[in-house]
Amino acid sequence: MDRLFIFDTTLRDGEQVPGCQLNTVEKIQVAKALELLGVDIIEAGFPVSSPGDFNSVVEISKAVTSPTVCALTRGVEKDIDVAAEALKYAKRKRIHTGIGTSAYHIKYKFNATQEEILKRAVAATKYAKKYVEDVEFYCEDAGRTENEYLARVVEAVIKAGATVVNIPDTTGYCLPAEFGAKIKYLMEHVDGIHKAIISTHCHNDLGMATANTIAGIANGARQAELTINGIGERAGNTSLEEVAMILKCHKHLGVATNINTREIYSTSRMVSSLMNMPVQPNKAIVGRNAFAHSSGIHQDGVLKNVQTYEIIDPKDVGIDDNSIVLTARSGRAALKHHLQMLGIELDREKLDNIYQEFLKLADRKKDIRDNDILMLAGEGRKASFRIKLEYMQVTSGIGVRPVASVCLNIAGEKFEATASGNGPVDAAIKAVKTIVHRQMTIQEFLIQAMNKGSDDVGKVHMQVACDGNVYYGFAANTDIVAASIEAFIDAVNKIG
Ligand code: KIV
Ligand code: ZN
Q1: What is the pLDDT of residues 384-405, one digit of tens each?
Q2: How far is CA 492 from the centre of its chain?
């Protein structure tokens, strides 16, 4: 079997998605889960883009041992200097530099010629090489770059010392056969191609990211750039769990990864919960319905022999059929076991706090699901926020004007306000705005039931604009008015 190197970019391309930003502690948590999952390279950030990204690359470099830590740069010296500095604690390090090579990028982004771009590509590679041995070069928009010119760039950067050359389908434009043919062309026409590893980096704008990645691998690429749950810019990147399981199911492709597939589910849940990005129920491998057989014919077949309708054993991706069902009578140990299955490790004090919240929820809701547990684990993170909701009371109904009274604790001091509105949420948000004197506009407001039933937990995502910036709030509660106000306050806390 040939080895495929798994380059995870959840913390860079994935984290670029609006609303998915993580703090450094959360990024370290994800990086450690990725290490356990067995990824070969973690793209930890784009250090020159912000002090937060710089710091995350530094801290992830200290936190992980086995994977190579990679930092992204544009093909400019300043970016490369900053990336090298951020990587200084990494045991294994890589600089990922590059430039746009398609006619669109060369003409409209750089107002340059192909020859100028070629020179800049070589110069950036040589400059990065002064700092690290392992240099990856990306040809941005390679998907729409003509093969002949692309081959010249690839050949030149390999000569300049690139150890890996990334061929991104940045816009998710290519068809699988076309992308596969592009990789084949490079394998056949670039002098010295075997001195470097060719990498795929596909986006999912037309829903073909995974198919394109597999076509690339079938034609010689030996690194794939992926994200957990396929999270990423616009329609996302190729999802790691899909590629890992395709190669496991289709051994005839002759390519294997180092991924410990049993860690897939817990890593997926952790990323979804920390990034507040729900996984669509019918998502391959990790969606809630991925292994649920609902039609009578399928159920009958599966009961007779599971292989009639199942190509993957759920246990292979870490979904344990015998998982303990949680109820109001479950103890701390059961809750801890369940949290661990979902990729969440907590110290004793945090576990105790969540356990108390769990008991309250279990009193209100008899069927406690994974989403509920993740919601409880997420709530703990809010303890350190400056503005807290002390209490809220709403009156609403048919034929009465909804009124809400709210009390906020702001840095230890209590403030109360009452307001009316066209509904209970509107009234409560107006009351909060009376206390927090800022010009804030709600740009997006999404309420979603986590599971089903009238006793279900409602999850709220909110996008709030203030002073030209956008902030994201998230909350979950069995009371959807309370969840809405908590999500608003969550966003307000981020305004600072
Ligand atoms: O999609 C893309 O082209 C990228 C590069 C920066 C690697 O993310
Ligand atoms: Zn990308």
Answers
A1: 678 999 999 999 988 889 999 9
A2: 23
Task: Tell me: do 376 and 454 sit in the same domain.
Answer: no
Integer Cα distance of 213 and 180 in angstroms: 8
DSSP H/E element including 448:
strand 440-449
**CA–centroid distance, residue 111 to ligand 1 (Å):** 20
Residues 147 and 194 reside in one and the same domain? yes
| Residue located nearest, by CA, to atom 5 of ligand 1 | 140
Whether 60 and 198 share a structural domain: yes
Distance between CA atoms of residues 491 and 496, nearest Å: 10
Domain at 474, CATH number: 3.30.160.270
Instruction: Tell me the pLDDT of the chain averaged across its residues.
Output: 90
- Looking at residue 257, its pLDDT comes to 98
Kindly report the pTM of this predicted structure: 0.76
- 389 and 416 belong to one structural domain: yes
Report the distance separating Cα 37 and Cα 309, nearest Å: 27
Note whether residue 225 is domain-resident.
Answer: yes
Q: How far apart are CA 121 and CA 76, in angstroms?
A: 9
Same domain, 51 and 173: yes
Residue 286 lies in a domain: no
Closest protein CA for atom 8 of ligand 1: 13
Among the listed residues 237, 257, 235, the one whose alpha carbon sits nearest the alpha carbon of residue 246: 257
Residue 28 lies in a domain: yes
- Which of 455, 423, 416 shows the shortest CA–CA distance to 442? 423
Token pair in block for residue 258: 């180092």
- Residue 138: give the domain boundaries: 2-274
265 lines ligand 1 (CB under 6 A): no
pLDDT digits (tens, 9 = 90+) for 182-217: 999 999 999 999 999 999 999 999 999 999 999 999
Q: Do 85 and 163 have their domain in common?
A: yes
From the list 483, 494, 495, 346, the residue with the least C-alpha distance to 428 is 483
Bridge partners for 484 per DSSP: none
Pick from 7, 23, 14: nearest CA to 381: 23
On whether both 37 and 131 belong to a single domain, the answer is: yes
Tell me whether residue 6 is in a domain.
yes
Pocket test for ligand 1, best of 99, 201, 213 (most atoms within 8 A of CB): 201
First to last CA, the chain: 53
Q: Coil, helix or strand for 46? A: coil
Q: How many domains does the chain have?
A: 4
Residue 168 in contact with ligand 1 by CB distance below 6 A: yes
pLDDT of residue 322: 43
The CATH number of the domain holding residue 38 is 3.20.20.70
Write the pLDDT tens digit of every residue in 418-454: 999 999 999 999 999 999 888 899 988 888 776 667 7
Give the list of residues 6+ apart from residue 206 with CB closer than 8 angstroms, or none. 172, 173
Is 389 in the same domain as 452?
Answer: yes
How far, in Å, CA of 197 to CA of 71, rounded?
A: 18
